[in-house]
Amino acid sequence: MKVNKNIQVKGKPQKWKDVRSKRCRSSIKSSNLNSSPVMVKMVKEHQASMKKKPSLKRLKNKPKTVPEKKKNSPSGFKKLESQANGCSKFALNDEIENLPDFMEGSESVHINGMETSEESEEVPGSRLEGEALHHCAQRGNQQNRAVLVMQKNQTLCFRGKCIVTCLYGRVEVMGFTIDEGQKSYPLFSPASHCPLTLRALGHTDYVRDDRTEASNILEDYLSAASRKKLVKKVTPTSSIILLEPLETPLTHFLSSFTHLSELFSPPVSELMSAVLDTPLNGLGVIPLASNIEGLKISRSCRDALGTVINACKGDIDGCAVILVCGVKNVGKSTFIRILINTLLNHTSNVDYLEGDLGQTEFTPPGCLSLSTVKEPLLGPPFTHQVTPDHMIYYGQSSCETDLDGYLESLKSLWRRRPQSREIPVIINTMGWVKGLGFQLLVDLIRFLPVTHVVQLSHGVSTQCSSLTPDFLRMAQGYQTHPPSQTALDELTERHCPPKTYTHLNVQSEFRGVARQGTAKHQRSNEQRELSLLGYLSQLQSDDPGPVRPLHTLTPYQVPSTAVALGVIHCEVAPSHMFYAINASLVGLCCLAEKVTSKGGPVILSQATLCPCVGFGVLRGIDTARGLYFLLTPVDPSVLRNVNCLLLGAISLPSCILTEQVCGQFIRHTYQSNACVFVCVLTGTCFSVSAQL
């Protein structure tokens, strides 16, 4: 595909450290912790309540003495409220004992930074809130950042976003351990998901002069007075973290939409639990009181994690291939994020095969993809939209209309994975586990060399049959039939799937299990919209400044004879193709055969599933010059391989068309035998003949 672009508006994405080094702001007073009206009102109410004198009610009679009784010390943590499908705390009642490491030199680090159950009872976890935050946190005197001292097993549950750096000791978030000396990581805790929780783990067991060393570390970040206050809080098991504001093109782009301006603020249900007037509020971090908890993980889930870690050590031949399945809203995405983060504590890469069309992790919805994960997942899917190694645009959020195409696409993606790789593979599946959906699961386990099947369930009722090896031998699949005979002989010969696998049943205890989220930003369609907006935010420049609406960006000019147009999800008459595809989201795909034109646009009579390199917005059509105007974040060197634009059922978010400057994206009026497209973005009229 030949592309021409006169003005270059994109640049290479900056690293987190580069973005962070440019953020120097003056200190922020408690009166302007957050510019939103909701947060300003909260601050004023909170300050007024602090000035009121508490009312005392005196006893009319003398209190009676109560005989002392022996109380058993509570074991483990109290029950925590959590929710599925979110980024949150990895709270353990007991430790996964004897989890071996499989990286050289990692023996000194516990898995996920968690300690044994005996140690956790001696040092029970506590929430940092209220006055404790004033004593344990100090703001930098020159830059807009804060230093926080946390004792072992202390937690900080919050809403907002920030950059975290571990200066001393270790902390854990969402299963990933951040050690001192490691690079900084961005944390995203929006209202659309369960709040994130930081947990202090202390440091390794070697002896160190904690206060002297901590004082030297803090010298670069705090004044002498602030440093003196914090050093008093440092113990041999303390952790010290640096929190800095986080502003990226993604967050800047999302905040430009009215309905998303409070995305990183506490939702209405948490407003009364928000802890205000702390040194952290001015950074974009709003701590939550102890009645709001992060994610709780069940004992069966911990056991499953331990089994997978042991397998990845090398207890099996080849690499571990873990397929995760379960009904909708049972917490598959949450479990997978924790699993990936836990694995990244020990290995540098994890492969991820996306099989859930509706709730994708790294791409816009409607995609099947194979990705190599190298960084921890410390936020919802819309915060880590990346380009997969291989991707197929299926074009719909469900596969009910083309089951064979769904299976063939996943097989094709698996073939593209280098078989010499011995890193773990995580396979995500749909929440469709009834009827044909269950048969698809049976086929996937037979087609792919699965070593572990993690099946999530909830409650005492049975959502579907247990996919054990014994059950699978006699189960009916969509393309396979008992006894187990794969319908892909060449895949069987090449990959030699094991004759059996380990079945792990996980009882989900996440809050919101079996219920569709009803709060703002938590519905499935809103989650898909956020992922699309996260992808489109890549069109924004890394340079600070106002958000640039799509109509102000310079599009690529694509010759209509160089690419074919196709529709995946329905049939469209060739004479109506321009009507359907203009001002729409299209997949940038690569057909195996060369596109040939006889002088006009190339229309596919039947769209086929093919490799996809990214997405774009078809901004306009110039029929006189035979040009398509395309907006896309895909690099021009990759665009040269694109020869097909596919339209699916995944549409642009409505806010793109209604809330950006200039209102409408495209307006069209009908005349006798032609359609005149009036591009509001440029003011240019494009006449499209009804007879192509």
Automatic annotation (TrEMBL):
Residues 139-266 form the NOL9 N-terminal domain. The keyword rRNA processing applies. One of its GO terms (biological process) is cleavage in ITS2 between 5.8S rRNA and LSU-rRNA of tricistronic rRNA transcript (SSU-rRNA, 5.8S rRNA, LSU-rRNA). GO terms for cellular component: nucleolus. Keywords: ATP-binding, Kinase, Nucleotide-binding, Nucleus, rRNA processing, Transferase. Its main location: nucleus. GO terms for molecular function: ATP binding; polynucleotide 5'-hydroxyl-kinase activity. This is Polynucleotide 5'-hydroxyl-kinase NOL9. The lineage of its organism: Eukaryota, Metazoa, Chordata, Craniata, Vertebrata.
